[in-house]
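Friendly challenge for the regulars: who can give me the structure tokens for this chain first? No prize, just bragging rights.
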Amino acid sequence: MQNCSQGVFLSSSHDLAEAYGASIDAAAEHRMSISNPSEICEKADVEFALCWRPELRAFDLYPNLKFVMAVGAGVDALLKHPGLPKHVQICRVRDPEQGQQMAAFAVHEILHVQRDFDTLSDQARNQVWSEIPLQSPSDVNVTILGSGSMGRCVAEACVAFGFNVCVAVRTPPADPLSGLRYQHGPQSIQAAMTDADFVVNVLPLTKDTADILNMRTLSQVRRGSWLVQIGRGEHLVEEDLMTLIESGHLRGASLDVFRKEPLPVGHSYWDHPSLRITPHIASSASAKAIASQLRQTVLEMQAGLPLSLAVDRTAGY
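First reply, four minutes later:
Bragging rights claimed.
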């Protein structure tokens, strides 16, 4: 008889059962079952958890957890969760469509600013017919911080639109993209940001990348440049960003991620004229992808195989 592993939904802020339960049930094929904590009688039977911002003591009741999976691409919250035992593996979803979504978001923000659509909208509203001079895409320097699955999709999209693209990486990529430049090594981020017109951050959050968008690095960019921040809120030193915007060194920023989410009502960001604010929607893994990859991971666990979607706790991704 085939194994059927029990899982649990754990979130402090979202109804994961409502969002993903039907897709997981459709993919389960009697190999897994997952429920809300209140529906599980034998906590010791739980072998895996699907999570989004779990409570501080969320894992205490489940002594036999083998792995936890985050419904988003980032696993930083699970990596630093004080209640998650060290022996429990952390897995992340790798949805190729999520990379495409993030690439579309990044290119949209670059084009919106580079083609000055705010001015065009104002002109249309005031019935003003006035052309705006166009800039050749090859004269626009776009720096991308990060070259994981998300960063690679963003880089491919920016190259396709003809921008002059530079990607900051820790080590030279095994499968480099054509049509762009790479900066690698300990000073790669600072080097890549030099003279950038746009900086797109898609770095994972690790001890080495926390606060990486600061006065020192952001000062490297060309005066009047723009930041597209779609990594993690903890990457950005907010005070430094605002200082550089007020001085005119930065034209502004598109911010999709924040240190505190939701962004509090009354926060100064909401009505700042140089900021474009979105509610962490640059990308989202589909329910179908989450269900499929959860089942894949459960089957690997049942077979005693290495979990192919597990992250390296030391590296942070």
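The chain has a mean pLDDT of 96. The longest strand covers residues 5-11. Your move, everyone else.
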